[in-house]
Specification:
Layout lengths: L1 E2 L3 E5 L2 E5 L6 H12 L7 E3 L3 E5 L6 E6 L4 E6 H10 L15 H9 L3 E3 L4 H13 L4 E6 L24 H12 L7 E6 L8 H17 L3 E8 L6 H9 L4 E5 L4 H7 L9 H10 L7 E7 L10 H7 L6 E7 L15 H17 L25 E4 L4 E3 L13 E2 L8 H9 L14 H4 L4 H5 L9 H23 L5
Parallel strand pairs: 9-10, 9-15, 10-11, 11-12, 12-13, 13-14
Antiparallel strand pairs: 1-7, 2-3, 4-8, 5-6, 6-7, 15-16, 16-17
Helix pairs in contact: 5-6, 11-15
Bound molecules: iron/sulfur cluster (2 copies).
The site of one iron/sulfur cluster has 13 residues, from helix 13.
C-alpha cells in the first residue's frame, strides 16, 4: 500500500512514513496511538469511513481514502481482496486469521482503514467536536458596523431591516468584551460584515485601533478580513484597510456584466459591475488576496463559468481566488424556487473548479483535498460571535439584524433567546439518526447549523455528492507528482 500524503514518526527505532493528512493535533495523536500498538493480540475491524475507488490508469490498483483520518493511498487489488475477505461476515481479525499479513494490517492501520475493535469511531469524532467547539485559542467576532447598504441585491437576507449605524456605546462594549478575553485566548479575529461595511469605515477604524493596542499590550495575535460589495474600494479606502491590518477581502461578482447588474444593482438601480472590477484592477498592487465569490442559483448557473473570462479581461487573475457560493432563501428573502438543490450546486462547483484548472487559473486540484471538520463554522464554536449595530449578539451571519435569533445584547446582557444559543451549541451529529450512519460525517459534521435550526433537510456537505470525483482526480495528480519525483536509482 503506498500513501500519498506523508509525515514521519519513529516506531521501534525505524523511520516510518505515515500517510495521514490531519487538521488537528489531537487527531494525529489518535492515529499514532492506533498505529503504534501491535495488532497481534488485539482484534481490529474495518473503519466505517473507508472508500475504495477504481483507479483508471492501473487496473491492478485501487484508490483508498478514509474520511476520518483523511488518509489517501493506493492499494494493490490483491491486498484489497485480502482486506475485503477477512471480515465479510463481521468477523474480527485476530491471531488465528491467516488471510491477512502483518505488513498489510499495519499499513491499513496507519491510515485508519483498520481500527482496533474496542475503538468507537463515533466517540472519537464526538471527542474532537466537543474539544474544538469549546477551544478558546481565538476569539472570533463578525461585526456589522452598519446594516446600511448601497446595493439592492435580489437575494439580500437583510432586506427590510433598518439601516442604522453602530452607536459609540456598542463600539466601546465590543472593545471591552475583547479586553475581557485577554486572559483566555491567544488571538483575536475580526470579520467586518454588513450591510456594506465600507460605508462605516470610521467605525471600523475606531474599533480596530483600540483592539490593536489591546493585542499589542497582551502579546496576542490579530487578524481581520472584510466582506464588501467592492463598490467603494477606492485607493484611499484600500490604503486605510491596509493600515487597519485587514488581511483578506471577499467581494461578490454574480456573472458577466448584464447578469451581475441585474442581480446586484445600486439601490437606485444603477450598474455596479464595471466599477467593482475597475476598483480591483486599479488597486491590485495594494490589495491583499481577494476572494471573488460568484453567488449561484438557477438564474445565473449558465453564466457562472464566464466569470473566468471577465477575470482575464480585467487582468486580475493574479490577485483573486474565485469560487462559487450557494444562494439560499435565508430569512425567506428569496424564492426557494430560484435556489439550486445542494446536490446540483455541488456538481456545478466541481465543474467550476475543473474550469479553473482548464483555464490554468489554478495549477492542480489538490487545493480541493477534503479537510476534516470538528465544528462546522463559527455558529457552533463557543468563542465565536456576530455583533450587529445595536449590540445584539448572535451566532450566524444570517442572523444579523434578526432579533429573534439574537442571543444577548452587549449593552445590557439581558439574555434573550438562550434556547437559540443552546440549539446552535448542543447539537451533536454523532447522535443524529442519519448523520451517525453517514460515511462523510467527519467532513461535514451535520451541515450548516442555521439550516438545521430552520429545519432545512438539504444541508449535506458537497462531498456527499462529489467525493469520488475529487479523490480520483487528486490521486491522479499525486501519482503524476510521485512519478516525476522518482529518481532512476530507487
Ligand atoms: S450557520 Fe450556516 S449560514 Fe451561518 S455561518 Fe454557519 S454555515 Fe454559514
Ligand atoms: S448533514 Fe448529510 S452529509 Fe452531513 S453528516 Fe449529516 S447526512 Fe452526512
Amino acid at each position: 500500500m503506498s500513501y500519498f500524503l506523508k509525515f514521519s514518526i519513529t516506531e521501534q527505532g525505524k523511520q516510518l512514513e505515515i500517510a495521514v493528512r490531519t487538521i488537528c493535533v489531537k487527531e494525529s495523536i489518535n492515529i499514532l496511538l492506533l498505529t503504534l500498538k501491535d495488532w497481534r493480540g488485539t482484534s481490529v475491524k474495518k473503519s466505517n469511513y473507508n472508500f475504495f475507488y477504481e483507479y483508471a490508469d492501473d487496473s491492478n490498483k485501487l484508490i483508498a481514502y478514509n474520511s476520518r483520518t483523511n488518509a489517501l493511498a493506493m492499494i494493490e487489488k490483491n491486498d484489497y481482496v485480502k482486506y475485503e475477505s477477512f471480515d465479510d461476515n463481521n468477523v474480527s481479525i485476530d491471531d488465528n486469521n491467516v488471510s491477512i499479513d502483518d505488513r498489510l494490517v499495519n499499513d491499513l492501520k496507519r491510515g485508519g482503514f483498520l481500527v482496533e475493535d474496542s475503538i468507537n469511531e463515533l466517540k472519537l469524532l464526538r471527542y474532537n467536536m466537543l474539544s474544538n467547539r469549546h477551544s478558546s485559542q481565538t476569539f472570533a467576532l463578525t461585526i456589522a458596523p452598519t446594516l446600511d447598504c448601497d446595493f439592492a441585491c435580489v437575494y439580500c437576507y437583510e432586506e427590510g431591516k433598518k439601516h442604522g449605524y453602530m452607536l459609540k456605546e456598542v463600539q466601546e462594549a465590543i472593545v471591552k468584551s475583547i479586553e475581557n478575553q485577554t486572559k483566555f485566548v491567544e488571538g483575536v479575529n475580526i470579520t467586518w460584515h454588513g450591510g456594506e461595511p465600507l460605508l462605516a469605515l470610521d467605525i471600523i477604524e475606531n474599533i480596530t485601533k483600540q483592539v490593536l493596542q489591546i493585542c499589542e499590550k497582551n502579546d496576542m495575535k490579530y487578524s481581520a478580513g472584510i466582506i464588501t460589495n467592492g463598490y467603494n474600494l477606492t485607493k484611499n479606502n484600500v490604503l486605510k484597510l491596509k493600515e487597519l491590518k485587514i488581511g483578506y477581502l471577499q467581494i461578490t461578482l454574480d456573472g458577466t456584466e448584464k447578469i451581475h447588474n441585474s442581480r446586484r444593482p445600486l439601490r437606485n438601480g444603477g450598474p455596479t459591475f464595471e466599477k467593482i472590477l475597475n476598483n480591483i484592477q486599479v488597486c491590485k498592487e495594494l490589495l491583499p488576496r481577494v476572494s471573488l465569490r460568484v453567488n449561484v442559483d438557477k438564474e445565473n448557473q449558465e453564466d457562472m463559468i464566464r466569470v473566468l473570462d471577465v477575470i482575464r479581461e480585467f487582468d486580475i487573475q493574479d490577485i483573486v481566488t474565485v469560487y462559487p457560493g450557494y444562494v439560499e432563501p435565508t430569512n425567506s428573502c428569496y424564492s426557494k424556487n430560484n435556489c439550486l438543490e445542494y446536490s446540483d450546486f455541488a456538481k456545478l462547483e466541481y465543474k467550476f473548479h475543473n474550469a479553473l484548472l482548464d483555464e490554468k487559473l489554478v495549477s492542480n486540484i489538490t487545493y480541493k483535498y477534503p479537510y476534516l471538520r470538528s465544528n462546522v463554522c463559527g455558529a457552533d464554536n463557543a468563542s465565536s460571535f456576530v455583533v450587529d449595530p445595536k449590540g445584539n449578539l448572535c451566532k450566524c451571519w444570517s442572523d444579523i439584524g434578526r432579533d429573534e435569533y439574537s442571543i444577548n445584547n452587549l449593552l445590557d446582557f439581558k439574555s434573550t433567546n438562550t434556547n437559540v444559543l443552546l440549539d446552535y451549541m448542543l447539537y451533536d451529529p454523532t447522535m443524529d439518526e442519519e448523520c451517525r450512519e453517514c460515511s462523510v460525517l467527519p467532513l461535514c459534521m451535520g451541515g450548516c447549523p442555521r439550516r438545521r435550526i430552520d429545519k432545512i433537510v438539504d444541508r449535506c456537505s458537497a462531498y456527499k455528492y462529489v467525493l469520488e470525483d475529487y479523490i480520483q482526480q487528486i490521486a491522479d495528480q499525486k501519482q503524476v507528482e510521485n512519478k516525476s519525483h522518482a529518481c532512476s536509482c530507487c
